[in-house]
Amino acid sequence: MTSAETIEQGEGAATAAAKDLAKAEAEMARANGDLKDARVEIADAEAHLHRAEAELAEAENERRAREVEIKVDGRRVTVRAGTYVVSKFKELVGVAADRELDIVEHDTFKPLDDNAEITVHEHEVFVSHVRTGGSS
Q1: How many CB atoms lie within 10 A of CB 93?
Q2: Are 72 and 99 in contact (CB under 8 A)?
Q3: CB 118 within 8 A of CB 83
């Protein structure tokens, strides 16, 4: 092989290497662009998630704050849906502290302890009565 041929082969290899390098740089540029796009999409998704979480929290607050109708001793009473300590609930709905309060579930009277919690959704029925079962 002559020196001219060796030079040509070297130049061909250099040209091929330069093309490969240019191709690799172009691929890296595309990859960097894809990465930048992905970061923007992630930021958008996070913002959307935060908005959805805020909307969910607001809806839950509205649900908790809504007023519902219940019956207490045959009277229709409007209260906010939520959880109450029974003694405070009795005050709220006009039942004397010395009376026992039962909730009617499936035609069964279930006594409520004054220190227990009751969750009111809507349409619950409560009945109060003189306490029974005390010592004599």
Answers
A1: 20
A2: no
A3: yes
Between CA 58 and CA 80 the distance in angstroms is 16
Q: Which residues make Cβ contacts (< 8 Å) with residue 76, sequence separation at least 6?
A: 69, 70
**CB-CB contact of 70 with 126 (8 Å):** yes
**pLDDT, tens digit (0-9, with 9 covering 90-100), for 72-119:** 999 999 999 889 999 999 999 999 999 999 999 999 999 999 999 999
> Which structure tokens are listed for 98?
């010395």
The token pair at 49 is 């998630």
| pTM of the predicted model over 0.85 | no
Q: Are 72 and 126 in contact (CB under 8 A)?
A: yes
The CA distance from 22 to 109, in Å, is 83
